[in-house]
Specification:
With 225 residues, the chain is of the alpha/beta class. It has seven helices and ten strands.
Length: 225
């Protein structure tokens, strides 16, 4: 099975003047096509940093990060941005929707930014609102949606480009139990039905039990739970 993500001997440190604080140490990590993975760990252990490295948002102090067959270190920022937009979908604890745009416009935004015809973008976004059960809310602004609805819109925005992998950073952390369960179910269904790999960073062990594989980030290393 093909790897959609590969991290090889990743090391990452924060620097404050001459002081170096190691976060990740010779970390190795592979994600297969269609696989779902939970990454657990204490606050500040580097879980979000790892997602940022995978997404090319941050650069490792040393080591290699691959998206598909692409070594991020060999690409300029423009190529990394292009690859990220096509291959990865991001879902965060806070939805980060654009407040002056409707739900359907927020969902379509990644395609609009790529310069795709607006009519085509809106049509595809409308198809996705049906998948996530929000077709009756697609013309509402984020301020007119519930927390769970806003997070569903954020997930729809993340999948509209048909990414090979979804990166979710505490995607249910800002929701009540009912909405958290609904959002998690949506992510799992999308993973199973569309074949996108799924990496969820979380502190919730209940979420972890629903994934194919559970890893713990501790002391800069990933290990099986």
């Amino acid at each position: 099975m093909n790897n959609v993500i590969k991290c090889k001997n990743i090391r990452y440190s924060y620097h404050d003047g001459d002081r170096e604080t190691p976060i990740l140490s010779n970390l190795n990590f592979e994600v297969s096509q269609g696989e779902s993975i939970a990454i657990l760990g204490q606050s500040g252990c580097g879980k979000s940093t790892l997602l940022n490295l995978i997404g090319g948002i941050d650069k490792p102090s040393s080591g290699e990060v691959y998206i598909g067959n692409n070594d991020l270190a060999t690409l300029n920022e423009e190529k990394i941005t292009e690859l990220r937009a096509k291959s990865l979908g991001f879902v965060y604890q806070f939805h980060h929707l654009l407040k002056d745009f409707s739900a359907i416009e927020n969902i379509a935004m990644p395609l609009l930014i790529q310069g795709i015809n607006k009519e085509t973008c809106i049509k595809k976004a409308s198809q996705i609102t049906k998948t996530i059960g929000l077709e009756h809310r697609e013309n509402h602004l984020p301020s007119e949606l519930s927390g769970g609805e806003r997070q569903r819109v954020a997930i729809a925005r993340a999948i509209i480009s048909n990414p090979s992998c979804l990166l979710a950073d505490e995607p249910t952390g800002n929701l009540d139990a009912k909405n958290a369960s609904s959002v998690l179910e949506l992510l799992i269904n999308l993973n199973q039905q569309h074949g996108s790999s799924l990496i969820i960073v979380t502190h919730d062990e209940k979420i972890a039990t629903k994934m194919d594989r559970v890893l713990v980030l501790e002391g800069g290393h990933l290990k099986a739970a």
